[in-house]
Amino acid sequence: MHTFLCVLMLVPALLCADSSRETGLRLLKKFWRDLKESNASHVRKYMDHNFQAVHSFGAQNKEEELKIIANLHITRYRLTHITITNTDDTLLITYMAHVTSNVNHVSTRITAPRMTTFQKIRNSWKLISHANLVPPSS
Q1: Burial code of 11-40, b = ≥16 C-beta within 10 A, e = fewer?
Q2: Prediction pTM value
Q3: Are 90 and 113 in contact (CB under 8 A)?
Q4: How far apart are CA 82 and CA 92, in angstroms?
Q5: For residues 81 and 100, what is the distance between their CA atoms, to the nearest angstrom?
Q6: Cα–Cα distance between 33 and 25 in angstroms, integer?
Q7: What is the pLDDT along the chain (138 residues), one digit of tens a residue?
């Protein structure tokens, strides 16, 4: 009986973990599709008003980050080593981003760790932070 009870308690936790991973992957893929398309107006819809980002050049608020997104020129990207952890209403996603961009007809490839955080606010997932850990250019 004790083993059966443990299994019953474990199954919802496993289902919740799978559900959180699926939700995290869905949100992350949506975010990166919008980045590739430089679709700042779409990101604005799910970016929380208290959003913060950090880059090698410093911290950004929501409006500053949306300006960056509007001017991105990503031609290709691949996300690897994705790890998703969660608490009740927060998904913390760390990963490696392999990004190819084209600015002024010059193609650049950068691989760097990233961290993106979503939080469920009033029954809707909001982007609350993003860390772009590309080392500063020398």
Answers
A1: eeeeeeeeebbebbeebbeebbebbbebeb
A2: 0.84
A3: no
A4: 10
A5: 18
A6: 12
A7: 444 333 434 444 444 467 999 999 999 999 999 999 999 999 999 999 999 999 999 999 999 999 999 999 999 999 999 999 999 899 999 999 999 998 777 889 999 999 999 999 999 999 999 999 987 776
